[in-house]
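As a representative case, we now present a protein record of this kind.
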Amino acid sequence: NGTFGESSAVSPSHTYTTNGTYNARLRVTDGEGLTNTATIVISVGNTAPRATISTPATTLRWRVGQSVAFSGSATDTEDGTLAASALRWSLIMNHCSTATSCHEHFIQEFAGVRSGTFTAPDHEYPSYLTLRLSATDSGGLQHEVTRRLDPQTVDFSLRSNPSGLELTFGSQSLRTPATRTVIVGSRTTLSAPTPQPLGGSTYRFASWSDGGAQTHTIVAPAANASYTARFR
């Protein structure tokens, strides 16, 4: 009722008998007279809605630039089928340094719609997308569901002639031969530092097997590819 009642019980309790939304507050005072307060929202006579993502399917493997359609809905015991205005979508990029260590990058939000489309972004691998749908009923209760969307990938084989020289792949420096996995349709800068030493000799860049400049951008095709830097 907006006021604090005194209790010396270890676990004091209260029962709400009227439907509604309440802000329950607990204030604790120690022997020195110092206090701390915690608050929790309690909804009586209302159940949380149930959100459902219909598309895209979990089997989707997206490529950079692909238009991906999404759709979903939510139902509630008290409100029935929730209006589109009760729905909120979020698209998140998850960038992973290892298979179990990932951090999120917010990409886009879609509020008040049951369906829509987004364009799959360009990002280095390993990474994946998370599509989140949050539904809020008339009582303020929410339910959130997520769908993980993994990309379609290919392998780049990176070589030099002679073998053992260094190449730059995006932000990485590597020694040939090497293999890197990328998302189909992604763009990466490929470079051959020159000059560079190897085995007592100095080598200068001559050409790339794909005819590109010493430093050029490659777009990942739908199949595995190989790139060789020739030196003299």
Q: What stands out?
A: The longest strand covers residues 87-98. The two ends are 85 Å apart (CA to CA). DSSP finds no helices and 20 strands in the chain. The chain has a mean pLDDT of 95.
